[in-house]
Amino acid sequence: MQQSLTIIGSGMAAYTLAREWRKRDTTSPLTIITADDGVSYSKPMLSAAFAQQKTPAMLAQAGAEQMAAQLQANILPHTQVTQIDVAQHSLQANGQTISWQRLVLATGADTLNPQLAGDAAGRVLSVNSLQDYTRFHEALKNTRHITLLGGGLIGCEFANDLAAAGYPVTVVHAGNWPLERMIPEVAGEQMVYALSQLGVDYRLQRRAKSVHQHANQFSITLDNGEVITTDLVVSAIGLKPRTALATTAGIAINRGILVDEHLRTNIPDIYALGDGAELNGQLLPFVQPLLTQARALAATLAGDPTPVRYPVMPVIVKTPAYPVTLVTPPANSEWQWHIDIQPNAIYAAQRDVDNRLLGFVLTGSAAAERAGWLKQLNS
Ligand SMILES: Cc1cc2nc3c(=O)[nH]c(=O)nc-3n(C[C@H](O)[C@H](O)[C@H](O)COP(=O)(O)OP(=O)(O)OC[C@H]3O[C@@H](n4cnc5c(N)ncnc54)[C@H](O)[C@@H]3O)c2cc1C
Q: Exposure of 254 by Cβ count < 10 A (0-12 exposed, 13-18 middle, 19+ buried)?
C-alpha cells in the first residue's frame, strides 16, 4: 500500500530527503509545507557570497514551482505549521487542517538573540536564510563599517567575506580567540593576524551590552565601557533548534528534537532531521550530517530500515585569508593537542593516551593536506 510523506521545511535537510526518497519511491504522494518561499539554495554560500558579488537572486537555485515539478511534490510555500495533532494525524497551517500519514520535521534552527539593551537592539541583523541575506545585501548598500557579534565559525566566515569585499569590520567575541572550541590558541592568534591584514579589528574577551541608534549610525557599548560607532550590526553568536512545533505534538525534546538512530521521534510516524534534530546527545548543524541523515531516513521511509552512521566529517572553514580544515574528536573522548607549527602552516593533531589520532586541525597551506589526514583517521 502506498504511504504518503509530508515534510515540514524546505531547507537542505527537507529537499535532500525529498530527493533521496524520490529515488526509491516515484509514485507515493509527497507534500512539503514551508514557512518560507520554498526556494532551494545552498545556505553555506550565505557567508561566502558577498566578496563574490553574488546577489540573492544568483544564490537561488530553483523556485518552489520548479522544485515541485522536479520532486513530483505538492509544495505549500508561505505556510507556517502551528500545531500537530497526533491522534488525528493532522496539522494546522494558515487556518487549514492538513492530514498526514508520515510526518518529517525538517524545521531547522533559529539564530540566538544577543541579549542587548538599547533602542536599536531590534535592528541587529542575523543571516540564517536567503530572505535574511536579501535584507543584509540591501543594508550593505548604505554601509561603511560593520560590527559582527560572534567569532565562531559563521562569524569568522562573514568577517573574511566582508573584509575581502572592502568593508572595515569589527568583531566582538566573548572567547579568548576565534573558533576557540575548535582550534588551538596558536591557530586562533594566526586567524586574528590574517584577518586583521584584511581590515578586521578584533575585540576578544568582550561582550556587547547595548546598542543605540544615532541618525544613520549605531553605537555599541561593550562590557568594558568601550563604545564602537558602526553602520550595521550583525549577530552570529549561535543557533538554537526550533522545537516549539514539536512540543505541540508531545514530541520529546532536549536541546533539539530527540530522535533515535532511525531518526524516529518518540511519536510513531513522526521523524526529524537536520539542524533541529538531536541524535545521541549531539546537535550537528552542518551539511554533511544532514546529508547522511537524509539518505538513511529516505531508505527507512521506503521500507528499508537504515540507522544513521556518520562517516568522518571534516569541517572546512570558509576563510580564504586563513584556510582551516578540521575534524572534531568524538564527543566525550579524552585527547591532547600535538602541535607542529611551520612558517605557513599549523598541523594540530588531537591524540588519545595511546597516541591514536581522534581529530585534527590543519591551517594555512596544511589545510590542503586534508585527504592524507582523513585517511589516517579512517584507518
Ligand atoms: C551563514 C551560514 C553558513 C554556513 N556554512 C556552512 C558550511 O560551510 N558548511 C556546513 O557544513 N554547514 C554550514 N552551515 C550550516 C548549514 O547550512 C545548515 O546545517 C543547514 O543548511 C541546515 O538545514 P536545515 O534544512 O536543517 O534547516 P533550515 O535551512 O533552517 O530549514 C528549515 C526550514 O523549515 C522551515 N520551517 C521552520 N519552522 C516551520 C514551521 N513551523 N512551519 C513551516 N515551515 C517551517 C523554514 O522555513 C525552512 O524552510 C552554515 C549556516 C549558515 C547560517
A: exposed
Q: Which residues of 318-353 are buried (b: 16+ CB within 10 A; e: fewer)?
A: bbebbbbbbbbbeeeeebeeeeeeeeebbbbbbbee
Domain range holding 328? Answer: 323-378
DSSP, res 367: G
Q: How far is the CA of 339 from the centre of ligand 1 (A)?
A: 34
What average pLDDT score do residues 224-252 get?
97
Same domain, 77 and 102: yes
Ligand 1, closest atom to CA 284? 19
Q: Ligand 1 center to residue 371 CA distance, Å?
A: 27
Residue 265 Cα, ligand 1 centroid: separation in angstroms? 20
182-211 tens-digit pLDDT: 999 999 999 999 999 999 999 999 999 999
Same domain flag for 57 and 171: no
pLDDT tens, 313-360? Answer: 999 999 999 999 999 998 889 999 999 999 889 999 999 999 999 999
CATH code of the domain in which 332 resides: 3.30.390.120
Same domain, 168 and 210: yes
- pLDDT, tens digit, 9 for 90 and up, residues 154-172: 999 999 999 999 999 999 9
Are residues 77 and 117 both part of a single domain?
Answer: no
**CA atoms 160, 161, 164, 165: torsion sign:** negative
The CATH number of the domain where 74 resides is what? 3.50.50.60
Its pTM stands at 0.96
List the residue whose alpha carbon is closest to atom 30 of ligand 1.
Answer: 108
